[in-house]
Every structure is written in C-alpha cells, then in structure tokens.
Design goal:
single chain, 0% helix, 282 residues, globular, Neuraminidase, 21 strands, five-stranded antiparallel beta sheet
Length: 282
C-alpha cells in the first residue's frame, strides 16, 4: 500500500466531496476488486473472480493508516463446492444479517452468503429482473446491491434494460422501482442515510483511455408519479480535467459522511487498484 495522488494540480472544481486519502494497493494475488463492505472495523472486498477478501482496516485522522489482508474466501455453494466459472462473476457486496448479500453478472442473481462466502440462500428479486434476455449483455448484469431496514434489498444493473427508456437508470427493491437520469454505467450503490442512495457511475473508452467517475445522490422519498427521483451530482472526476482515476466499481460507507471506493484493475498491468477515502460535504 503506497500513497497515490488522484486529484488534479488545480483542484478547484465545484464538488460536494472532499478527497481525504488515496492508496495504491499491491497485494499478491488480489485483483479485479468490484465490491466493498465495511463492518466490525474490517473491510471486505469482492473480486470478479468469485473471491471474498477480509482486510483489517484502520482509519485515523482521515487517513488510511493500516490495511492488512487477513483472510481469503472462495465463494462456494451449500455443498462447499466452488461456483463454476460462469456462475462466479461476483460484482456487488453489502452487509446483511450475519453475512453478506452478493450480486452477480452473467448468471444474474443475488445470494445471501456467510462471512466466509458460503451460500445460505438465493434472494427473491423484483420480477422485472427475471428475464435475462432483457439485459444489454451477459456482462451488464446485476452490478450492485445495497440493503436497508426500510427498503430491504436494493439492486441495479449496469445499463438500462433493452425494454426500458435508455434515459434513465433504475434501482429495484422487491416490489418497487426508482429511476434517475442515466449518465454512464452503474457500478455500485450504497445507502447514505435512511432515504438516500449514493450511486457510483463509470464512463470509459478503451480506444481513447478517457475515464469519468461520477457520484450521484438519489433520494428515494422524493420521486414523481413516474418513479423518477430527485438526484444530486456530488462529484464528477474526469481524466480530461487531470484526475488520475481508474475503473472504480466498489463503494462502501465507513463513517459519518465518509466512504471508500475501489477500482477494478481488470487483472491488467496497465490498470491500478486504487482505494480512495472521501467525505461528502454538507
């Protein structure tokens, strides 16, 4: 873990977040991190490869002081067998009861798993998510998942479904939906408070290497009759403006208005695993 600067030299943009600390992570064998969850002073990170990592995390004076890899768990079914390759593309992670909810692409589903990544049961989702043919592609599935006592399980696919208005992204609870203006692809969601969700969005061009990471607050209580909700852009980090960012896919709350987000290096020597601590400003 080493210091890394993602902010431009002239960081005077009108944003509602403050970058507190950024670390470049280099843990042997750890790659493609796409989900984060913080509980009991431990940081859990989920890899696309179907692996759950547990880190000891210490944040003091708004800095990531300690990050130690303690355990590695391969996701397994009830028979303790590792999921087959086409069923292990794990993307979203959130704390739930004594374990975690984990969302998947390719074989779209959300599972309730133990803290060691063992399947407990499959969760029931909104019926609108059941038809796999409606997804833009097999790799544009259930990218994220969050949970709150008030709304229950909330999930989102990366891009609008084929039969939906492409102007809007959609968040799904079991029996209702919320929509907000689409810009980029949804890579993670987490609750800010009892009624607001923070959405992490990504825009990326493999041809030009242009990258944009956005953070949007969506208020689930302030929506019109078409279920289109009030939103607020908290930040837009654009590589064209000098931001040294990568492919951010994981987001979790670690304290009062404080969050961590992590980038997926796609197991590539040309990309980085960055862990960013930031504060949402009042």
């Amino acid at each position: 873990m080493t210091e890394y600067k993602i902010t431009p030299a002239d960081n005077n943009q009108n944003m509602h977040i403050k970058i507190l600390d950024t670390k470049l992570l280099r843990f042997s064998g750890v790659s493609e991190l796409s989900g984060l969850s913080y509980r009991d002073k431990k940081l859990y990170a989920l890899s696309d490869k179907g692996i759950l990592y547990q880190f000891l995390l210490d944040i003091e004076h708004d800095k990531i002081q300690i990050l130690q890899l303690k355990h590695e768990y391969k996701l397994r079914n009830k028979k303790l067998q590792r999921f087959k390759r086409k069923k292990r593309d794990s993307e979203g992670l959130t704390a739930y009861k004594s374990g975690f909810l984990i969302s998947f692409e390719r074989k779209e589903r959300v599972l309730y798993c133990s803290r060691k990544g063992i399947k407990i049961r499959k969760m029931k989702l909104n019926p609108l998510l059941e038809n796999r043919k409606n997804y833009q592609s097999a790799n544009k599935g259930l990218e994220s998942v969050a949970y709150s006592p008030k709304y229950g399980l909330v999930t989102a696919h990366e891009l609008p479904l084929k039969n939906q208005d492409s102007k809007y992204h959609t968040l799904y609870a079991k029996n209702r939906v919320w929509r907000f203006q689409a810009e980029g692809a949804v890579t993670d969601i987490t609750f800010l408070d009892k009624d607001s969700v923070i959405v992490l969005l990504r825009e990326y061009s493999y041809l030009t290497q242009h990258r944009v990471t956005s953070l949007v607050e969506v208020n689930l209580q302030k929506c019109n009759k078409q279920d289109i909700c009030k939103e607020k852009v908290l930040a837009k980090l654009d590589s064209a403006d000098g931001w040294h960012i990568d492919n951010f896919e994981g987001l979790t709350k670690v304290g009062e208005n404080r969050f961590l987000m992590v980038s997926d290096d796609n197991d590539s020597i040309f990309q980085k695993t960055l862990l960013v601590l930031f504060e949402i400003m009042n």
